[in-house]
Amino acid sequence: MRRSLAAIAIGFGLTVVLFVLGGMAGGACHCMTPMAVFFPYGTAVSMKGEWETAGLLLITVQFPLYVWLLANTPAGGKRLIVLVLLAVVHAAAVVFWLNF
Q1: Among 45, 40, 36, 47, CA closest to 86
Q2: What residue numbers bound the domain in which 50 lies?
Q3: Which of 3, 77, 90, 100 is deepest in the core (most CB within 10 A)?
Q4: CA distance linking residue 15 with residue 59, whole number of Å
Q5: pLDDT tens track of the chain, all 100 residues?
Q6: Which of the 8 DSSP states describes residue 75?
Q7: Using CA atoms, how far apart are residues 22 and 9, in angstroms rounded to an integer?
Q8: Global pTM?
């Protein structure tokens, strides 16, 4: 239980840091590209759909979910597989959003 709570807390901290960095970078270029790279699911929903609340919810839970999945995966090769799958799915979402 402690591992899950610590993972969620780390994920929320990472979300806050990346949200601030994405906002600053987006302000510098006057675009949504940095936010789309960090948070492709929430950005796609809120920018392409008019569902701002759902997009913010996705932004809020994305990294805590990533870290929770990694923390609750057994150590060894399975953790590496989960990490690679998360990276591939995230990269695919970024490419899809930037080309949408």
Answers
A1: 40
A2: 2-99
A3: 90
A4: 8
A5: 888 899 999 999 999 999 999 999 988 888 888 999 999 999 888 877 678 888 899 999 999 999 999 999 988 889 999 999 999 999 999 998 888 7
A6: T
A7: 20
A8: 0.87
Beta carbons of 86 and 66 less than 8 angstroms apart: yes
Segments in 1-100 forming alpha helices (H): 2-29, 33-38, 40-49, 52-71, 77-99
As a whole number of angstroms, the longest Cα–Cα distance in the chain is 42
Collapsed DSSP state (helix, strand, coil) of residue 73 = coil
Contact predicate 11/66, CB 8 Å: yes
Chain position carrying tokens 């809120």: 46
Half-sphere exposure of 64 toward its Cβ, with a 13 Å CA cutoff? 13
AA identity, residue 14: L
Task: Scan for tokens 């948070």, then name that residue.
Answer: 39
Residue closest to 4 by CA, chosen among 69, 79, 57? 69
| Total domains, the chain | 1
